Each structure stands twice: as C-alpha cells, then as structure tokens.
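Following up on my earlier thread - several people asked me to post the actual chain instead of describing it. Fair enough. Here it is, all 295 residues.
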Amino acid sequence: MTRCDLSLGFVGLGALGLPMAINLHRAGFRLRVHTRSRSAETSAELEGAIRCSSPADTSTGVDVLLLCVSDDAAVEEVLFGANGAASQLGDGSVVLDCSTIAPATAQRCAERLAHQEVHYLDAPVTGGTEGAQRGSLTVLVGGASDLLERVRPILEVIGGSIHHFGGVGRGQQVKAVNQVLVAGSYAAVAEAVALGQRLELPMPQVIDALKNGAAGSWALDHRSTAMLEASYPLGFRLSLHRKDLGIALDAAKAVQLDLPVTTLVEQLELDLINSGHGDEDVSALHRWNQTRKRS
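Reply from S.P.:
Thanks for posting it. Predicted structure:
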C-alpha cells in the first residue's frame, strides 16, 4: 500500500506530535489532525491537512489513527471518552499509539478496540524534538508483526529506525528501559556541569574534550550547553519524564527489582516540579545543583 492510499488521523500536536504530523503531511499522506488546544492545527506547515474538532472527527474514514498524547488518562480519553476515536474507527483500522504509557494500559486499550475489529500497536518513540523534526526518531513497537508491516510506510517517515519487540505492551516496556537510561545520563551531565562550574573550569572546552570519550552521551551532546547557559528550552518536558519514571519504577517493582539511581532522580525531578519547573526541559535537572548553597 502506497502513501497516497493511506488516510491518516493524528491526535496530539505537542512538542513531538506536531513535527511528526508535519513530516507525514510533507510525505504525501492524506491527514486529519486534532489537538486539545486546537492552536497547533493552524500551523502553516499543515496547510491542506483537515482540521478536526474532536478525536471522533479525526478518526472518521481513516486507515490509521496516530496518537501522541501526554499520559495514560489522555490516551483512554482520546479513544473512549466523549467524542472519542473508538466511536468512529472502522473495521480493520489501526491505532498507532506513539504516546508513552504503562504497558498494562496499552494492553487494555488493545483489548477494548479488538471487540470492534480495530487493531492496536504501541509505538513509543525516543530521540527528542530534534529527532521528531528530522524524522529520525527511534520507534519501539509492540503488537502483531503483520500490523507493523502495514504501518511501516508511516513509521519510516517519522523514524530513522524501527524495532519490534513482540506483543502489545512490549514497546512500552522498552521505552521504560530507555527512560531509566535517560534519567541517569541527564542527572550525571547535570552534576558534572555543576562540578566543573564550581571548579571554574572552561566548561565549553571541557565538554568538547570529553564528549567523544567514555563519558560521551546524547545528553552531553545535546543538553550540556543549555545547562551551561542556565536556559532550558523545551525538548522533553520534565513533568512528563517524571511520569515515565513512575512507569519504569512500577515495572521494576512488579519484578522485585530496586532501581536506586532512578528513584533518586525521580525525587530530584519531583522537587523541581514542586518548585515550578515542571514545564521546562529535562535538562532543568541542572537547576537542582544550582539552587544548593555553597557550604
């Protein structure tokens, strides 16, 4: 099936969703769009896409409905709430859920949709706003392999790599592992930057010297400058990352595994959220060190 043959709906035009939708529109897919605030629907780069008043409207006549919303409650509301997508999704259509939610929620959504012959894939993404804009996200898929092949032309536009891990919920489990790695790397970069600043080192030079060695990481490459400038433009919202860490910690608890580093980072993030920084990028972890007084 070619791109022109597929009609898509897209709900959730946030920091990741909007550039994903723009890339699909540019690639020639027929696209219906909706987002809760409605404002992003008017993006000049979505000119020609059909603006829709609700998830139900967005789902009318589509082959595939993509979701990229904030959390479990948002996914369930979009699918099954008032004017929800499930009311209009046709037999054989596919929900491609790029949100990050609990594996059990993904499985529950798949089971409910199956009763009306609608298919579901969980397909959380990683790679930040930069990856969303470039179409180079990593896509972590759970669900039937034949469904993955049906939607592969879509995923190849939004993702640079696509990985299948088994049944529904497995993509979300891998995303939980990813977020544990993100937590540790961001926190380590934040502490390293704080230490270098206290030592009054030439930190741009230090980072340039270290980034290609054993200490190199995505966080060091892409977020250390923000930390040095104490400016945290939104790439991935701190409050959403804390939500994701909750999913990861619940998954660890279910298999009787302690994650002490992740638990500590979650507490640091909660402290920052309670101080009013929840809408900043995850790199705002650097604020925690900056607010500690010198002894």
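The first strand starts at residue 7 and ends at 11. That should answer part of your original question.
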